[in-house]
Amino acid sequence: MTAPAPTAAHVTGSPAAAGEPVIRLDGLTKRFGSGADSLLALDDVSFEVRPGEVVALLGLSGSGKSTLLSLLDGLQPPTSGDGTVLGTALARAGRSELRALRRRIGFVFQQFHLVGRLSVLENVCTGALGSLRGPRLGLLSYPRAVRERALDGLEQVGLAAHAFQRADTLSGGQQQRVAVARALMQEPGLLLADEPVASLDPESSAQVMRLLARVARERELTVLCSLHQVDLALSWAHRIVGLRSGRVVMDVATEGIDRATVMRLYEEVAAESAEGMAAAVAAGATVARHPVSASALVPALTKGD
Ligand SMILES: Nc1ncnc2c1ncn2[C@@H]1O[C@H](COP(=O)(O)OP(=O)(O)OP(=O)(O)O)[C@@H](O)[C@H]1O
């Protein structure tokens, strides 16, 4: 079956601004390393995400998208500033609080991270491991209620017919839908997705994004998803947050916005890179043969100052 081409008609306006923000960032900053060689990956990032919102995080490679998602998931601490996720203050939380936070956040990865030799259903069951005691081996080691919920989840992502197939026999798009079903087993209060469609063909990409938008709507689930595809962001997200060199440079509702406006996020960086390259060449620098983003270029230009 051919997936319908995504159009802006698939996403309606932002959900009502009811309730506390699920994510509240206030000057969040992340620096890797120290001294002259340190790198500012996130620079004074401030924004909020409300319950039920689907937000696309856009920006060139190296702009800080994955770093931001990993901070929100409590995997690494901010260097300064504050961020609150599902009521947990990232900068002040102890290890056990962060572990508890991670159990309430579903995470979908670019490479799916399924266990290929296990059945599709068992892969989905593993999403419940955080709430079960002890290790599990084999589908029947999971409580019946978990298996039933996993099957419901597969139904929801349209893959119940594949429940007993090995996960590695599915297509990439199907595997990503299984990964979404696995994340939903946590009954998360927030779903983070790091380039979930980067390795998929356009049709599968649209299917996965449509699925994320649908579960967000049906479960009033908040979704923050990094993407490289502007059209998918415009079609499936309520809002776009654009990062450039670790800074938020765009925060717009997708309703009524045109593609050209969003593309400025990339064009201006390309222009800055070109200017920076020209200046570097004029100053006698050796220029890399592969494309260089502004965030990669700036440290290279300033090194040794
Ligand atoms: N653990 C780390 N140590 C040092 N530098 C890091 C680390 N993680 C990320 N960085 C740097 O931080 C910057 C932001 O990287 P990040 O992976 O967040 O970007 P991104 O926007 O997700 O890129 P992509 O779209 O390619 O995934 C990059 O310059 C990267 O090299």
From TrEMBL:
SMART domains: AAA. It holds the Pfam family ABC_tran. It comes from the Bacteria. Keywords: ATP-binding, Cell membrane, Membrane, Nucleotide-binding, Translocase, Transport. GO terms for molecular function: ATP binding. Transmembrane segments: none annotated. The keyword Manganese does not apply. Residues 23-270 form the ABC transporter domain. This is Phosphonate ABC transporter ATP-binding protein. It comes from Streptomyces rugosispiralis. The lineage of its organism: Bacteria, Bacillati, Actinomycetota, Actinomycetes, Kitasatosporales. The gene is phnC.
